[in-house]
Design goal:
CATH architecture of the largest domain: Alpha-Beta Complex
Shape: globular
Bound molecules: adenosine monophosphate, manganese (II) ion
Radius of gyration: 19 Å
Number of helices: 11
Helix content: 25-40%
Order of helices and strands: HEHEEEEHHHHHEEHHEEHEEH
Largest sheet: 6 strands, mixed
């Protein structure tokens, strides 16, 4: 396992223009990836994997790419992610979902493994054991903290989503875009750009236009994916936001707003963990704080921590220091202990990583 964190110099997702064509990936890597796909027979087992607690970019880029492989004629495709086989409700109807299997049913010795939106092997859980064997491993990602753990690493920290990288590789493989592939890639693109709120260049909209031109309904997808939640999720959100804390002196005086949600909160409202992912958005909107933190208890005693900054802090560096990763303005890590303890660990690191 690669332990060193590779942060590419001069590439900063918070500032570097998004290219839309994964320009940070060199031609040799693209050629190797195309050769890896072309080099296995169409009836070979191909395993696709995305990160634990998958989000729209992880699932969307993986399933969009899987559908592209199906169009090329591949017949034995399986897509999976580590952990409980619980696809978040908003992504259950994604095209290509018929290819999803629980991690226990992943091909054990596929000659080709494709990995999506995964910055480090630690995000692969038990599926990390599939690496290092006979398989050729191609990684498609956009995290600056990516550890280059694949045989071929298509990593563009300037890309707005992993789907930008997936789209480019599909194009290079000669896969024509269709509405099903486009829906997957569009969900991925809108997830990671906050529905185009975090876009810095026109290239993302150019890709979106190409996807929408296949006939998909951007409005329907947005409503289904981001604007539809169970009533209990809305009540849960109210409680969790109600206990938010504003810590004005944190981050060198730039301020920190944070809250937490427990498994008990989820049980009380009969909700699945994915509903907690939306909590970071109202917290990051707090005017008095540069940094937003949401501490989410996914299994008893284990917390997924989401970090966001408006620019004063490099939260990727904070997350990496705590065993996680991410982007300069959006990152995360896994923690144990009480929420207050987690905040105490984060606080000095915010001061240490002021941008
Ligand atoms: P999230 O807060 O879960 O939306 O994640 C924000 C960013 O941080 C995403 O790019 C994630 O891939 C990354 N990230 C979140 N948790 C982890 C983790 N435990 N290890 C590495 N990267 C993470
Ligand atoms: Mn992701
Ligand atoms: Mn992503």
């Amino acid at each position: 396992m690669t332990s060193a964190s590779v942060v590419r110099p001069g590439i900063d997702p918070g500032r570097t223009p998004v290219t839309g064509s994964a320009a940070a990936v060199d031609e040799a890597a693209w050629a190797s990836a195309v050769a890896a796909v072309r080099g296995v027979p169409l009836d070979a087992e191909v395993q696709l994997i995305c990160h634990v607690n998958p989000d729209g970019d992880a699932l969307g880029s993986m399933l969009g790419f899987a559908l592209g492989l199906r169009r090329l004629g591949f017949t034995r495709l399986r897509a999976t992610f580590p952990g409980e086989f619980d696809v978040p409700e908003p992504y259950r109807a994604l095209p290509g979902s018929d290819l999803l299997v629980p991690e226990q049913e992943a091909y054990r010795s596929a000659p080709l493994i494709l990995i999506f939106d995964v910055a480090a092997e630690s995000r692969l859980g038990a599926l990390a054991s599939l690496l290092g064997g006979v398989s050729r491993v191609v990684v498609l990602d956009h995290h600056a903290s990516n550890t280059d753990f694949g045989d071929v690493n298509l990593v563009d920290p300037g890309a707005a989503a992993t789907s930008v990288v997936a789209d480019e590789l599909l194009t290079r493989l000669g896969v024509p875009l269709d509405a099903e592939i486009a829906e997957c890639l569009y969900v991925a693109l809108t997830t990671d750009t906050g529905s185009f709120k975090f876009v810095r260049t026109p290239a993302v909209h150019t890709l979106a236009a190409r996807l929408i031109a296949t006939g998909i309904s951007a409005a329907d997808i947005a409503r289904r994916t981001f604007d539809t939640r169970p009533f209990g999720a809305m009540k849960l959100t109210g409680e969790v936001l109600g206990r938010a804390v504003l810590d004005r002196s944190a981050a060198g005086g730039h301020g920190l707003a944070w809250t937490y949600a427990t498994t008990a909160d989820l049980e009380r409202h009969n909700q699945r963990p994915y509903v907690l992912d939306a909590l970071i958005d109202p917290i990051r909107g707090v005017a008095e704080a540069d940094v937003a933190v949401v501490i989410k208890e996914l299994t008893p005693g284990e917390w997924a921590v989401s970090l966001r900054s408006k620019g004063a802090v490099d939260v990727s560096a904070v997350a990496v220091a705590l065993g996680g990763g991410g982007h300069r303005l959006a990152a995360g890590f896994t923690a144990h202990g009480e929420p207050e303890d987690v905040i105490m660990r984060i606080r000095p690191l915010l001061d240490a990583h002021l941008a």
